[in-house]
Amino acid sequence: RALIFPLLIREGKPTPFFTFVLALLFCIFNGYLQGRSLSNYATYPPGWLKDPCFITGFIGWLLGMAINIHSDHILRNLRKPGETGYKIPRGGMFEYVSGANFFGEILEWFGFALACCTIESLAFALCTLFILGSRARQHHQ
């Protein structure tokens, strides 16, 4: 999402380079942390992929990702080319939550945390909740 979404948006306010670099560094560090945790330290019993905890987490991750992608699509298509101004998104989860894209991403990472059952994945899910939760609240207001 960090690489694809910015390439798909048509117009908008430019992102400051420093913000881009910080986001890139965070994604690299978090990807390394999650990958190292799963490949070097996490141990799972035989049959883990059939465990209700993993299945529930995987479904939560998949559902969150679908909500996130669909919500981003709605947001990208709010304005016609050349239009400016604020528009309220409609459709999908925006009918239930004003920050559907944020909700989808939070659900995605809590699903990931449940499927992985590592302290690192839970830490990232909680960081996502606090950061995106505050952004969602600002957007709602």
UniProtKB/TrEMBL annotation:
Q: Where in the cell is it found?
A: Endoplasmic reticulum membrane; Microsome membrane
Q: What organism is recorded for this protein?
A: Mionectes macconnelli (McConnell's flycatcher)
Gene Ontology cellular component list: endoplasmic reticulum membrane
Tell me where it mainly resides.
endoplasmic reticulum
Q: What terms describe the molecular function in GO for this protein?
A: 3-oxo-5-alpha-steroid 4-dehydrogenase activity
Tell me the superkingdom of the source.
Eukaryota
- Its gene name is Srd5a1
Q: Which residues cross the membrane?
A: 15-33, 53-71, 109-132
**What is any one GO biological process for this UniProt entry?**
cell differentiation
| A Pfam short name | Steroid_dh
**What are the 3-oxo-5-alpha-steroid 4-dehydrogenase C-terminal domain coordinates in residue numbering?**
14-141
Q: Which UniProt keywords apply?
A: Differentiation, Endoplasmic reticulum, Lipid metabolism, Membrane, Microsome, NADP, Oxidoreductase, Transmembrane, Transmembrane helix
Q: What is this protein called?
A: S5A1 dehydrogenase
InterPro entries tied to this protein: 3-oxo-5_a-steroid_4-DH_C, SRD5A/TECR
Entry similarity comment: Belongs to the steroid 5-alpha reductase family.
